[in-house]
Specification:
heterodimer, A: 18 helices, globular, B: 4-stranded mixed sheet, 7 helices, 45% helix, elongated
Chain lengths: 449, 163
């Protein structure tokens, strides 16, 4: 069900929306003031009731994550915000940083209080120069007003926020790689346990939240957690609120749109995204960033079991299922960042697969053998196929390599690299085999329109 | 031993360095921001920069070298006055990134990964720059140029070459 809203994006179209004055004139910083007047437990409780599933892709409930943080101890705690946006197809967090940075700073104040931290680091990928500039600008304005510093809103709870930058490595979006990078090292993911809440940044308890998740906190405090959750038509599945949706690739109106959770892929493509370019048909859609297995328009929901959360959509096209963390997982894909990549029938699925294989090969950190060697091997096979020198047997090999990466690496990058490969193999086996048999002459030979 | 180092920051960046150190509980955490600061000054990271950062952050040079070789934005060789990054990942590729890259290569007379003879422009390919909804796009130094047509790319290149 498509219910567009303007909550996170309410200031987007106001001139100078990045300035404190604009943010305050629409009620900005009142939620942080309110939070600091509550107890820490009350704040965490509101966030738990909000059923906010992490917006960075993993979909872990934010309130539960906050609840893992220790209540006492001799070490300081940290809040770290993940704004290393780089999952192909994902471009939503950047809009918040550029157009409403104070919302993020306010979210950091609430977040610090909720997890018991006095310092927040916002980890922004280095390429996003305007985002960094806007965040620093907001930090300086908030400090000058006393919203950040020793006594925010007169409460004796010091909070400070800093921007930290990466240097061009997708893997640093993985939370433990991000912490390594924050500490000045190579972005190689850490073994868990210990989890960041036990031992995160600088050996201290740390919560890592996605930027959009933290930017939702002022709204959660303002509306109340339960009301926020009920915005979503998937509230009953513990998937609450509104969120940013992105759509890119072959649609008429690519961009970032805000709506209550419950939007289907069909609505994202045809309503928000303005539909397919004239003369083209939908080939497939990658629901939430490149790691999510692709869905075809003729894929049907198969959930005869009344206990399945997908049962109410049994027999309907998968495109008509609301995009949620658990609904998409049960379809065998993921909601991820809810930023979809749309492929029309002008695009060749083999070339799309090859493009993604190149990306994952480039970004593997090289720490774990299955991923380091596997991503290279998968790319070499796809190189051969694209050049018309591949064989059908090698498709089974591709399948085997991808399956052997899954579950055998320190972090989820291995899965992220394998799942799209397995998805394309499952959904486009016939097209890929035709490509191999005809040496590529069955293909459109292109990705662009 | 530091007095023999041949790299030094200019006074303004020296002040910025102090500000960077004040943000973290230890010196090592300043390693990446400091490398950016040095690279801004001389466009690439040579052994002198590595030695400088290692001493300031109180870590072995091997650590800094490890960092420099891990992250793709640190230039390990001199680059042109301007850097053009052309995003190649799927959303951009679906909207013509390939054609855009070839156009840039033809106009500049170089392949990606190379620098023009006059040392003005280095052309590179990038993996996803988080501008998928505004594809195809390029980044020129610190600026994103989005929703590009080949005509618009020509204007951008002309302006760079005339500078």
């Amino acid at each position: 069900m498509l219910k567009p809203v303007k909550i996170l994006t309410k200031n987007y179209d106001t001139p100078d929306s990045h300035k404190l004055q604009v943010y305050q004139s629409s009620g900005g910083y009142e939620a942080a003031r309110k939070a600091l007047g509550m107890t820490r437990d009350q704040v965490v409780d509101e966030v738990k009731k909000a059923n906010l599933r992490g917006r960075g892709g993993a979909g872990f409930p934010m309130g539960v994550k906050w609840g893992f943080m220790p209540k006492d101890g001799d070490k300081p705690s940290y809040l770290v915000i993940n704004a290393d946006e780089g999952e192909p197809g994902t471009f939503k967090d950047r809009t918040l940083m550029e157009r409403d940075p104070h919302r993020i700073i306010e979210g950091c104040i609430i977040g610090c209080y909720g997890v018991g931290a006095h310092t927040a680091y916002i980890y922004v990928r280095h390429e996003l120069h305007l985002s960094k500039e806007r965040l620093w600008g907001a930090i300086h304005e908030a400090r000058a007003q006393g919203f950040l510093g020793p006594k925010p809103f007169g409460v004796d709870y010091p909070v400070d926020v800093f921007v930290h930058t990466g240097a061009g490595a997708y893997i640093c979006g993985e939370e433990t790689a991000l912490l390594e990078s924050l500490e000045g090292s190579r972005g190689e993911p850490r073994l868990r346990p210990p989890f960041p809440a036990q031992r995160g940044a600088f050996g201290c308890p740390t919560t890592v939240n996605n930027l959009e998740s933290i930017a939702s906190c002022p709204t959660i405090l303002e509306m109340g957690g339960e009301q926020f959750s009920k915005l979503s038509s998937l509230h009953k599945f513990g998937d609450g609120g509104c969120r940013l949706y992105g759509v890119s690739g072959h649609v008429n109106k690519p961009g970032v749109y805000e709506a209550c959770i419950g939007v289907t892929l069909r609505e994202l493509i045809y309503d928000l995204g303005g539909g397919m370019p004239e003369g083209t048909n939908l080939l497939g859609v990658i629901p939430g960033g490149s790691s999510c297995p692709i869905i075809r328009p003729d894929d049907i929901v198969d959930a005869p079991d009344p206990k399945s959360i997908l049962h109410e959509w049994h027999g309907k096209p998968q495109l008509d299922v609301p995009i949620g963390v658990d609904t998409m997982r049960n379809l065998g894909t993921m909601a991820g960042t809810t930023c979809a990549i749309v492929l029309s029938d002008r695009a060749c699925p083999v070339l799309a697969m090859h493009n993604l294989a190149r990306f994952y090969r480039h970004e593997s950190c090289g720490q774990c053998t299955p991923c380091r060697e596997g991503t290279g091997w998968m790319l070499r096979i796809l190189d051969k196929i694209v050049q018309g020198k591949g064989s059908i047997e090698e498709l089974d090999m591709l399948h085997e390599i991808a399956s052997n990466i899954m579950g055998n690496t320190i972090c989820a990058f291995g899965e992220g690299a394998s799942m799209p490969m397995l998805g394309f193999l499952r959904k486009f086996r016939k097209e890929i085999e035709d490509y191999i048999r005809t040496g590529g002459s069955s293909s459109t030979g292109r990705l662009a329109l | 031993m530091g007095s023999t180092m041949s790299f030094a920051l200019n006074p303004e960046r020296e002040r910025e360095m102090e500000d960077i150190f004040s943000r973290y509980p230890n010196k090592q955490a300043a390693c990446i921001p400091l490398l950016h600061l040095c690279q801004e000054q001389q466009r690439w990271v040579n052994d002198d920069v590595i030695a400088f950062v290692a001493e300031k952050c109180d870590v072995p040079t091997a650590h800094v070298k490890g960092v420099v070789t891990f992250y793709s934005l640190f230039n390990q060789a001199p680059v042109g006055e301007h850097e053009i990054w052309v995003c190649q990942t799927l959303s951009c590729a679906l909207r013509g990134a390939d054609k855009l890259l070839h156009h840039c290569e033809k106009r500049l007379g170089i392949h990606h990964g190379e620098t023009t003879k006059d040392g003005k422009i280095t052309l590179r390919v990038a993996e996803c720059l988080a501008a998928c909804g505004q594809a195809p796009m390029i980044m020129v130094d610190k600026t994103y140029h989005e929703n590009l047509s080949l005509e618009r790319v020509d204007e951008i290149l002309d302006a760079l070459m005339d500078k």
